[in-house]
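agent> fetching stored inputs for the iron/sulfur cluster docking request
agent> found them:
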Amino acid sequence: MTQLAGFPKSVTLVLSERCNLRCRHCRYGEPREVPPASMDAEGFAAVVRDLASVSPDFVVQLSGGEPLLFPGLESLVEAISGTGARNLVNTNGMLLSKERIRSLSDAGLQEVVFSLDGFRVIHDYIRRKRGAFKRVMEAVEDLRALAPQVKITILPVISAYNLDQIAAFARWLCDDERISAVVFQFVSQPMPADADAHWYLSSDLWPEDPGEAARVLDALIALREETGSKVLNPASQLALMKRYFADPNHCVQGACTVGFRYLTIDGMGHVRSCVAKPPLARLQGVSILEVLASPEARQYLQAMRACRENCHYLINCAYEEGGEQEGKEAVRS
Ligand code: SF4
Ligand code: SF4
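agent> prediction call returned; pasting tokens
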């Protein structure tokens, strides 16, 4: 019996460091050196199988860059769906043709999360791609027709560009019966890049008026009440977003609550939980369960618990209401 230091509720597999878009709030699509990947579909599938041998009670997020660029996506989805773990793909939608919808649906895809930031003109502007909005809406329609069992979630990123329409856009999404859920994130420093606490001071992405941001977030809180939680962000998270837009450098209080609840594994096999520390390990001749059972994992966890950074990850992607829990302790036999 081996005690694991923690167990994830969500595992993000970074299938591609590249993207076919070059959005204004992200740098994945910019030309840059990317080390060759050492993980293929089978390598990623082995990680999911190992974790599911302890418990299948987690979600696998197939992400990037743009995950539809990953050549083994269908076989990976098929492998994951055989484990009992839930799966979803985070995509900009550009490559989600009817053919890909059929093949991914046949493989067992359960959810598509579309990045969609506003109505047509604004979305196309943010994504630097004329027709990007139309392409997503076509993919939504095709999914409903060809793969009605696949859940559709929309993920808008709130920034200065869409702030004045985000409340109307949210209502429009909530009124669309094809869409299961909407989850908001706030704009943060475009990544990948070296962290810069003052990036926003000179960025067009940053809303100038925190009062306007607060009014929009209040509207989202009200919409959440009205729609019976079709907006997935808890009201407490939307309230924290107001603090973020008022002062991003003093908006997070207390200890790190991430633990090993959220694991990320990239194409090099690097295992991360903290967004700022070096990777916990690299999956090279060692399994994910061995990594999570290692003394280094316990030390890493202790260091995370001691962290008091004003870390936006805690209130954006890794937010959890009352989030003290770190994912259940797991015993591997
Ligand atoms: S936000 Fe998404 S779609 Fe846009 S460049 Fe980054 S990874 Fe690509
Ligand atoms: S920087 Fe600190 S608060 Fe953020 S994930 Fe890492 S340990 Fe947690």
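agent> quick read of the result: The longest helix spans residues 210-226.
agent> awaiting further instructions
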